[in-house]
Structures are given as structure tokens and as C-alpha cells.
Design a protein that fits this description.
Elements: E1 3-10, H1 19-32, E2 49-51, E3 60-69, H2 76-86, E4 91-99, H3 106-109, E5 110-120, H4 125-137, E6 142-147, E7 150-155, E8 160-169, E9 172-182, E10 185-186, H5 189-195, E11 204-212
Parallel strand pairs: 3-11
Antiparallel strand pairs: 1-3, 1-4, 2-3, 5-9, 5-11, 6-7, 8-9, 9-10
Length: about 220
């Protein structure tokens, strides 16, 4: 059974769309594009689509990955053009790759996610660099996150692989973040920004890259 790995972008127009709505949107677009997607078996067959990692609401991305299982092979050029013709503004297929049908699930292969985070600040570049170094030098960073009535405590430092300063322009700092993203835990850019001392929510968060385990 052919398996295609699709990289696509999600822009500002769709940043508040939920994961479930994105899956529905993609399923409809594939059907309208005339692409023969394989379906699961059982009483409630579903198109065999699998996203690597759901994108948080409010975040844009150049790096979304999805595996599509097909009933029969499709030419890459046809797949990209036909699907993009059916997709609304704010989502675009950028490239596709052939993936082995017996390879591990896409979700199980993700190890890190890289983000570009824009934050309003009055700090100078040297000050931000020092803050980043101080955080990376920590052995651990106890943290807690409250969701509704539940409070989760964990080590935020264990979810941070690397941080770096991009630039500071007109009071806006761009910070790169490489955060853990696997079944054992996922770092959240807005929490890392807060740990760096930025109290305001980031102006924007963009996922730039997903790092997969070699398989």
C-alpha cells in the first residue's frame, strides 16, 4: 500500500482551527482532489491519514507532517497540484516524500520541534543572551501547569534541548527554541518564554521544523 509523507504549512488564516477540524478539512480536500486514499477496516471506516503532532491553537507552521496511505500510487506532481487546488488559503502542501508502508508510525518518530517565537521586550540583546545562558545552565527547572482544575508538576528544563536569540528589532525579540516532543513529554513555547522572564504571551509562535528519529 503506497504511503506518502506530506509536508504542509498552516498560516495565519487557520491558526485558530482545531486539530479535528484540520483533519476534516484535509480529508475533504483529498476526496475532492480525486486522490484514492485508503480507508481503515471495521464498522466505521476512516481515511488513513496521520499527523505527526497536533499543532496548538494559535500557532502557525511551515513544518506540519502527515502520512497518507493510498489505494494506488499517485504521481507526486499530480498529488501536490490537485490537493493544493482544493485547499483554502492558509494551508499549502510544500513537498511530499515516499515512506515505507511498514515504517513505524509518524507520531512515534517525532523527537523534537523547533519554533520561532516573537516576544515584546525592552531588554537588550546581551541581556536576553544572558537570560538564555542562565536557563540552559540549569540542571532542572521545576514547573507547574494548571489546566482547568488539574495542576501538573514537572521539570521544564528536561523538555528544552536548545534556545538561541535570533534578532531584536523595534522592541520585538525573536527566539529560537528546540523543544522535546515525544511520547514522554512536549515543551510548550509560551511556557519557556515565561521561564525566560517574559510575562506577556508571545506575539507569535511558528513551528519551523520537526525532528524525526532515523528509522
Amino acid at each position: 500500500m503506497p504511503r506518502l509523507r506530506v509536508r504542509f504549512s498552516r498560516g495565519l488564516q487557520l491558526k485558530f482551527i482545531s486539530h479535528l477540524d484540520i483533519m476534516r478539512l484535509l480529508s475533504r480536500a483529498l476526496r475532492r482532489a480525486g486522490i484514492a486514499v485508503a480507508y481503515s477496516e471495521g464498522y466505521n471506516p476512516r481515511p488513513r491519514l496521520a499527523l505527526a503532532v497536533p499543532l496548538a491553537v494559535g500557532v502557525t507552521s511551515d513544518a506540519e507532517l502527515m502520512d497518507v496511505f493510498l489505494k494506488r500510487p499517485v504521481a507526486p506532481h499530480f498529488f501536490i497540484n490537485a490537493l493544493n487546488h482544493q485547499l483554502p488559503p492558509g494551508i499549502e502542501v510544500l513537498e511530499i516524500f515516499q515512506a515505507s508502508p511498514i515504517q513505524a508510525s509518524l507520531q512515534s518518530l517525532v523527537r523534537f520541534a523547533e519554533y520561532e517565537v516573537s516576544i515584546k521586550t525592552e531588554k537588550s540583546p546581551p541581556e536576553i543572551q544572558e537570560i538564555i545562558r542562565d536557563l540552559l545552565d540549569k540542571a532542572e527547572l521545576p514547573w507547574q501547569h494548571q489546566r482547568q482544575e488539574k495542576v501538573r508538576q514537572y521539570d521544564l528544563r528536561a523538555l528544552i534541548d536548545d534556545l538561541w536569540l535570533g534578532n531584536v528589532t523595534d522592541g520585538i525579540a525573536t527566539i529560537g527554541m528546540k523543544l522535546r516532543c515525544d511520547p514522554g513529554g512536549s515543551g510548550r513555547p509560551e511556557q519557556v518564554a515565561k521561564a525566560l522572564g517574559f510575562e506577556e504571551h508571545p506575539i507569535s509562535i511558528k513551528r519551523r521544523h520537526l525532528v524525526l528519529e532515523a528509522s
